[in-house]
Amino acid sequence: MFIIGGIQKTTLVDFPQKIASIVFTQGCNFRCGYCHNPEILDFNKKTNFKTEDFFKFLKSREGKLDGVVITGGEPTLQSGLYEFIKEIKNLNFLVKLDTNGTNPQIVEKLINDNMLDYIAMDIKSPLEKYSQIVCSQVNVNNIQKSINLIMQSNIDYEFRTTVIKSQLSYDDFEIIGQMIKDAKRYYLQKFVPSKILNSDLLIAETYTDEEFKGICQNLKKYVDIAEYR
Questions:
Q1: Total structural domains in the chain?
Q2: Looking at the predicted structure, is the pLDDT value of residue 45 above 90?
Q3: Domain extent at residue 76
């Protein structure tokens, strides 16, 4: 089963250097307070979005779109993810997967079967703080396995972290840098208060541009590209 929670027909920024459509999947095993998609965190089979309608739309965009971004929620919770991606690939579109890294066995199969063209994995915090940040119990060994799988693959990728100042210290970024040592790209994402799961965080602050610059400069001893956005 593959449950679509939402669709964005066109994006110029979510798939690097590609014009893409975004599919948001329902359901997530995390409850990050700063989540911008709280309405799709729970599984709800009553949805207005049908997979057949999406593929009908996708076929109508041949020659206009380069690919599809599959995000969530957490897409690897969908039992029909493999077949959904396979159908996209059969239409000759590129696929970018956004994942939280909790299901490395699924990520590994998709990589091995050449189903992905780009992977973006969220790294929430140092491993010892994961459960605290995501408000769920986490097998952190799976997080590290996914990091290693992605870095050892031949697929283009990025790691990224949403940053709230009270949650992540300078030392935390140092630890994350060591976790992903020799990675291609690591992006720090400014927390932007808007529609989020935990309204208490609406007053939370992120780092200043100058502070971000310093953090990124330090991270460059671990990764090829470290930038904030």
A1: 1
A2: no
A3: 4-162
